Amino acid sequence: MKHFSLERIVNCLKVKIATTNDEYNDALLVRRQVFIEEQQVSEVEEIDNLENEATHFVLYDHNQPIGAGRFRQLENTGKVERICVLSTSRKKGSGKMIMDKIEQYAIDQGINKLKLNSQTHAEQFYKKLGYETVSEVFMDAGIPHVTMVKQLT
After folding, report:
1. Residue 5 contacts by C-beta under 8 Å, 6 or more apart in sequence?
2. Distance between CA 101 and CA 111 in Å, rounded?
3. What is the C-alpha separation between 123 and 118, in angstroms, rounded?
4. Of 77, 59, 80, nearest to 122 (Cα)?
């Protein structure tokens, strides 16, 4: 039986900024599986008119897309959106890898504050990453959410 080190497993994971149609379609593939199929969000709500103004991120495991997210710049604030990981790849640090890449991208763009709308079940995940809840619970796509913010250093 072969033993794999955690370092070797992590080295198989890579977050990329989608720069090609294929990479963007990989992000959509993951988002469709998580939001449309698993969470029953309508495709019209998930794939919206903001796609073209967003920067898309894809998490790959051995060239297979397993996570995604997008980022938009709103004046001096970055908006983090559509963070998702396939159910088979959750609880392994995958979401944190996506968030780390988006935060570094924001810093590189001169953005020092991020905002996101978190599903309430994911609120603790974002709190561990330094986000603070700044709203009451509200519904979006039939799912309870809260708005969260983080100052980047």
Report:
1. none
2. 14
3. 6
4. 80
Read off the pLDDT of residues 100-134 as tens digits, 9 standing for 90 and up: 999 999 999 999 999 999 999 999 999 999 999 99
Tell me the per-residue pLDDT of 58-86, one tens digit each, with 9 for 90 and over.
999 999 999 999 999 998 899 999 999 99
* Residue 141: both structure tokens together: 């796509």
Per the confidence metrics, is the pTM higher than 0.70? yes
**Structure-derived torsion over alpha carbons of residues 92, 112, 70, 121, reported in degrees to the nearest 10:** 50
